[in-house]
């Protein structure tokens, strides 16, 4: 029965076990880790919630096909299986669902689930940024996209503007300093 449950979960990405809860397969998207300079691929994770919903009709059809029995026998066999699971869970406080994970009983109503590790098909890749000199590439500035040549021109222009205006601040400070000296000599004579 475990093999059939594992196969149904893999094919349909969800499984309802009466009296226990619901299992579902979630896809965790790929992500970029800038600090470690790596890109990891998307992977699957089995999650569990305590909602006790009855299985769908297609589940019983699937079990009947897998075990090569009729649908009524599949319902009886699965009901016996779930009763046995609940009995084992009350006795041991933990059961291992082969190929899915481990259920642990925390209290009368609360179960926790530890999923098996689903292997990743693609290992993480190292990602190095390559910027070639003397070639233009697009750079995002706020909501605008500009080429690297445009940004270099803008940055150099702002540096030259700052360099050309240094004398204004120096002149103002010089006038204030001369005014302070003149005031001092006028008041202390």
Question: Structural class, from secondary structure content?
Answer: alpha+beta
Separation of the first and last Cα atoms: 109 Å
Helix and strand run: HEEEEEHHEEEEEEHH
* Helix proportion range: 40-55%
How big is the Rg?
35 Å
Largest sheet features: 3 strands, antiparallel
Strand order of the largest sheet: 1-2-5
- Please count the helical segments: 5
Count of spatially separate domains: 2
Mean pLDDT: 83
Number of strands: 11
General shape: elongated
Beta-strand portion reads 25-35%
Poorly predicted regions: none
Description:
The protein is α+β, with helices and mostly antiparallel strands. The chain folds into two domains: 2-126, no CATH class; 138-187. 44% of the residues lie in helices and 26% in strands. The chain is built from five helices and eleven strands. The chain has helices spanning 2-12, 57-67, 71-92, 148-164, 166-187; strands at 14-17, 21-28, 31-33, 38-40, 43-49, 94-97, 101-105, 111-115, 125-126, 138-141, 144-147. It has a three-stranded antiparallel β-sheet, with helices on one face. Strand 1 and strand 2 (21-28) form a beta hairpin.
């Amino acid at each position: 029965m475990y093999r059939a449950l594992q196969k149904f979960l893999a094919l349909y990405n969800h499984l309802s076990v009466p009296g226990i809860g619901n299992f579902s397969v979630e896809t965790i998207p790929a992500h970029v880790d800038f600090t470690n300079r790596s890109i990891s691929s998307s992977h699957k994770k089995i999650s569990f919630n305590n909602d006790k919903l009855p299985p769908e009709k297609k589940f019983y059809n699937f079990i009947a096909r897998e075990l090569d029995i009729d649908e009524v026998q599949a319902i009886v066999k699965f009901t016996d299986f779930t009763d046995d699971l609940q009995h084992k869970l009350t006795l041991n406080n933990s059961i291992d669902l082969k190929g899915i994970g481990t259920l642990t009983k925390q209290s009368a109503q609360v179960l926790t689930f530890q999923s098996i590790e689903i292997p990743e098909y693609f290992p993480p890749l190292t990602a190095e940024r390559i910027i070639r000199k003397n070639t233009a590439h697009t750079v995002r500035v706020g909501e605008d996209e500009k080429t690297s040549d445009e940004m270099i021109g803008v940055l150099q222009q702002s540096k030259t503007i700052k360099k050309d205006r240094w004398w204004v601040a120096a002149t103002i400070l010089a006038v204030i300093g001369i005014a302070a000296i003149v005031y001092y000599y006028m008041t202390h004579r």
